[in-house]
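Please, structure for the following, as tokens.
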Amino acid sequence: MEQKTTQRLLSLDTLRGFDMFWITGGGALVIYLSKATGAGWLHTLAEQMEHVKWEGFHFFDLIFPLFMFISGVAIPYAILSKKEKGVSQSVLFKRILKRVVLLIIFGIIYNGGLKNGFENVRVASVLGQIGIAYFIAAVVFLYTKEWKFRVVWLFVIITLISVLQLAVPVPGHGAGVFDSTGSINAWLDQNFLPGRLHGKTFDPEGLLCIVSASVVTLLGAFAGGILRDGKEANVRKTLQLAVGGVVLIVIALAISPFYPIVKRMWTIPYDFLSAGISLLLLALFYYIVDVRKWQKWTLFFRVIGMNSITIYMATAMVSFYYTSNFLLGSVSMLIGDYGMVLKVIGVIAIEWSLLYYLYKNRIFLKV
């Protein structure tokens, strides 16, 4: 019988923490360093710390899909390992369903449901999309025994999204429209998505976006299957991940002239490009952390990665900037343009200290 590794991947926790770092202060730190120093190379990096307005791709457009990809990598460990231990499909399905319900609820809370009331609340959310896309990918892996059938489901979803976005005409606009008013995404959100739309005429976490995003999560689950295959971490797995990443990036760029890369619509080229880069990052972190065992540097990111939902929710409910300004405001005024740099470093330090306390006491918000 082929052995499957069940050991927790330190590289996965590290990569998740690396991902979350940029939206909990890392991106702002680069932007304010760029403003303070005026350095050209920092200005170039700072541009990558902001989303593109519509079509195209910046580093910041990778943060969300990378998190979804990582959640997919965990599926073979969380689902298949329990199936192999005899846990029934019905029990596992209930756990998957519980996860998606909790994430949808957390997402509505993050959107201000408790603060502003549930009338005209935004139902779609980042957390809701993560949960539903995870649900789709996890159910595919739960109820299929062979990898070829999982690949079939992946292609079914890719084909469905492609046909809808490229070939199905929208009343008054036609087919193959990729903007915020005439796209099939916008039409579906306006007619079928409950609650307030974030983009007024569409929602970047809308109905079609959610289904499309499950492609990224499914690709993450395939990557997880590669990592789980066999007992030891090795270079072969690293190369498989890297080659897969390169192939997806090439495909994304090749079809982008007629099927554009649009994050707010989660077009298939955007899925492929973000999943391809995610595969390369996973290959890099896996090789460094799990194959070569260079692990001492990982603590900073692992502390963030093992409580990623906690810090995401906390940034919506707690003003870490207020605390940083309270402690460092007078000093920041003395150092001029670097004052905001110091305050952002303070924010990161306060957030990390909270997460480290939770980490040391083994308190983790698991959904």
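The first helix runs from residue 10 to 37. The mean pLDDT is 94.
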